[in-house]
Amino acid sequence: LAGAATPGGRFDVRQELPLLLSALKQIYRDKNLEVEWTIPPGLAYPAEREDMLELFGNLLDNACKWATSKVVFTVAGGPGLSFSIEDNGPGAPEEKLEQLSARGVRLDESVGGYGLGLSIAREIVEYYRGEMGFDRSPSLGGFRVWVRLPDLSRSS
What we know:
Elements: E1 11-12, H1 13-27, E2 34-38, E3 44-45, H2 49-66, E4 70-76, E5 81-87, H3 117-127, E6 131-136, E7 143-149
């Protein structure tokens, strides 16, 4: 973790994330994924760029890895920062959802990986005093992860 943003530093969500999404579409180009995203204009969050790219990168990579054809990424602004990432892949059994963010845990070995992405994401969310949860996507039927990060501008 890089830690709290330098004084006055802000992660520009609208500027940074389209570049990350574009890179992921290239990595998973063989899947021909449809990636929909909604990010309000002017949205910035007081956090270190590297931490936020690691958080978003791990969660979006997981969605792209498991999606059959579609990923939906929705960001909402303040106070704080909230977002969800959904895919139309197989999802995870409800009784196994809480295990997913444990370091090294993988529920399916058929797709490459080390089982670290979700645990790294959880560590970042906890460092920023946020919340992260998993469930089934109501619109796509696959996996959904949601994150709520607090309004750090009011923290002491």
